[in-house]
Amino acid sequence: MKMRRSTGNDSVRPTIGVGLLYGKGVFTTLAIVEGNPFLWDKHWHRLTANATTLGIDLSSHSEQGFQDRLLESIAESSITDGRARITLSDESPSRIWSNDEREKSTGLSIIVAERRPIPANFKLTVSPHRINTTSPLVGIKSCNYLDHLLAWEEASKRGFHEAIRLNERGEVASACMANVFWEKGGKLFTPSLATGCLPGTTREYILESIGCEEVAVGIEELNEADRIFLTSAGIGVVKVAEAGGRELDTSDHPLSNLLPF
After folding, report:
1. In this structure, are strands 236-239 and 227-232 parallel, antiparallel, or unpaired?
2. Vertex 189, ends 172 and 253: CA angle to 5°?
3. C-beta of residue 125 within 8 angstroms of C-beta of residue 163
4. pLDDT digits (tens, 9 = 90+) for 234-258
5. Mean pLDDT calculated for residue range 193-199
6. 150 φ/ψ sector (left φ>0, alpha ψ -120 to 50, else beta)
7. What's the whole-model pTM score?
8. DSSP state at residue 14
């Protein structure tokens, strides 16, 4: 790739959009079941709501257009049971780097893949990296996702498959790449949205389908849990076998059989 150096008498006009420069974009990951996107309405609602919050222009996109593109991508992949990621990225010029006053532009990309392999003896730890509930991105599935990835990689280097993230108040919020549920004394719990957890579509579906209490509690509650589950469209419902060096109950549970995948 050729690079151009400024001589002082000219300037390079950057054309890189704010999506690439700063991660200004939103995405959603859907489960594909028998060739169709699962919980499409919930994903579409969150995707468009998040885009509106971040000021990403959707005027040139329609729900039907999204669905058509998604179904085309699924058909081209020949994957009938897997996952798909839809990403909306702001490709407008940055006002910090350019005086270009072009109209807003939004890019759309779709990736289709097989489901993530889940190890049988799923091990969970606690991440040292906290979630900030005062962040303007809290609760938004933004493309600025590096802190989640770094937390996941840190846990992976220590030999774990996922990690619980606490917020700045020490409350359980979520895993790095998933929502968390746990059972204690026969009752099911999950962090409330006030903890800074992402309002996952799978989480929402579970709350609509099974009795569960939303709470704001410390890690000691998970340390005393009988079972722990991680949930997302990409992994479904995962039963945690070990957390904090303690073996957990992984026998059958209504939650683990709730999804069609």
Report:
1. antiparallel
2. 125
3. yes
4. 999 999 999 989 999 999 999 999 9
5. 97
6. alpha
7. 0.91
8. -
